[in-house]
Amino acid sequence: MTEAVIVVALLLVAACATAAVAVRDPVRQSLVLAVLGVVLAVLFTVLQAPDVGLSQLAVGSALTPLLLLLTVRKVRRRAQRAPDGPAGRRGREGGP
């Protein structure tokens, strides 16, 4: 019975990790990453490491996706404010 639960948890981890790599949109990718964090926390709990599972739950499914979403939001806001995009700014500043 225990082996079956471990195998199911490992298959869920593999499916979520594959989905996180396959998704192209950064917002959706961070949401899939949050689901992957929850599934990894379940796997760690099944493997009798609840302390690692709680840490993974806090960091992998809450903090990291939140930071990614905030970063994507900031990058998109900067891109909207720039009238001619990043290539135009490089040309004016004398960069490569």
Walk me through the structure.
With 96 residues, this protein is an all-alpha fold. It contains four helices and no strands. It has helices spanning 2-22, 26-46, 50-81, 85-93. Helix 2 packs antiparallel against helix 3 (50-81). The protein is elongated and about 60 Å long. It starts with a helix and ends with a helix. The model has no long low-confidence stretch (mean pLDDT 88).
Shape: elongated
| Unreliable runs | none
Query: Got a strand count?
Result: 0
Helix content: over 70%
Output mean pLDDT. 88
The major pleated sheet works out as: none
Order of helices and strands: HHHH
How far apart are the termini?
61 Å
Task: Quote the beta fraction.
Answer: under 5%
Number of helices: 4
Write down the Rg.
19 Å
Overall structural class, as computed from helix and strand content, comes to mainly alpha
